[in-house]
Amino acid sequence: MSSILTGERLTNRRLVIIAAMAGTFLSALDSSIVGPAMPTIIGQLGGLSLYSWVFSAYLLTSTTTVPLYGRLSDMYGRKPLFVVSAALFVLGSALCGIAQSMEQLVAFRAIQGLGAGGIVPVTFTILGDLFSVEERAKMAGLFSAVWGASAVAGPTLGGLIVQVIDWRWIFYLNLPFGIVSVTLMWRSLHETRTGERSRIDYLGAILLTAGITAFLFALLEIGEGASWLGPRTGGMIVLSAFLVAAFIYHENHFPSPMMPMGMFRSPIMAVVTSAGTLIGGVMFGISSFVPLYIQGVLGGTPIDAGLTIAPFSIGWSAASVVSGQIITRAGYRLSVVAGTLSAVAGSVSLLLVSPDTGRWPAAVGSGLVGIGMGLSSTAMLIAVQNSVGWGQRGVATALVQFSRTIGGAIGVAVLGTLLTAQLTSRLSGMDGSMQGANALLDAKVRASLTPDILHQLTTALSSSLHIVFMTMLGLAVVAAVITVLFFPRGSVEELQGADGGMGADRARKADDAEATMPSGAQTRPTSR
Length: 528
Known about the structure:
528 residues; mainly alpha; Growth Hormone, Chain: A; 2 domains; 18 helices; 76% helix; globular; disordered N terminus
């Protein structure tokens, strides 16, 4: 049995891995299963103008809580934070399943996001605690493969559930996996708290959440036709800037900040978070807007939409495994740069999709972006983890996740605002333009449209989505430029932090030995 001694109780690594895999499966499934179902949900509940908010509300709460989960896991241990986050995710999933309106669904997705914010960063922090540098690359590849496998199943399974059963079951499906994950983690992971107990940065979390929320509401107003300089919109933008500035000031002066600003002075952290923010917009743009094109423009089914974005997850899964090999042989930079360039190529492919070409350019583009995410995200995460010590690994891991999800939250909101504005402009001569666009997503209503009206609606939606895809390409290009020019060169050892966990790594050289030695209260997980 593979186990380590944490504190005075034996941790079963295999059961912890299973629990962590179940949690990863939860998050991955949700990220891929909702997108293909959304056009059907819009067709039943209405509210196309709130389309992007189903994603943005989830990403907002999951993003702003990521650094807080990281800090709390350093202070109180990984297990309680994993259990709390998974339980919140399960609660939010159950509520989403009973939503009766788009407004309710948006609110319940926000609750679901509160839990999602902790699952992935705490999971990868646990892996960082239990495994050596060499093993982390393999485990990161394994978990990325699990993510990819579940994300591959998600779109197809989601489409099948929507067509055969009911869209609500895409949320109910999370419940059994969440229960298994919480139970196994609670019973199998034993740890001694190693971080110093300090004040929790609640004010920082409030300032950041309020600042981002104000900006997202401004985008919603703009998407509905308001001017950037209008009193309400301009006021919210000014308020957002003030709150974010207050957050930065607070973090620089608070003794135990949720987001230590000093970490951004590290070249690795600076590049990873800036490029990760941009690439996050591309990543979530794939799952949010490609299904809308397949169903709204091409008239495909939810299964068609799921199959089109499935290559994204397949590419991510396969490339993550390859990334682990690249890291051990050539260092981080090659994997990171190749990944961002692949995302650029995938974004270009999205621009080629049209009613004439069908969905294949979108499928190829999704696959290339997925390969890019697999190559870049795995290397970025391990590079950051190995550049800091054990006591900062939780918050450092959280910041990597934070950058990608904040990019997704803001990116999807911006892209959604752009889509709404473009649609409104292109359908300005049609009464009830947004209601007309909703008709494209309800199979029965779509079938009743005259050929002229159908052509007008699909052309407007296609042109609007191409503007969205072009914006995604711009994000990918800037991310690639950042990594090519600024990601540090050097081997894994050369980029290792002064206390990047090497002491713990040496202690794990005999990691799989059956015997263990008494340790008493320890400051970090050890094994022999």
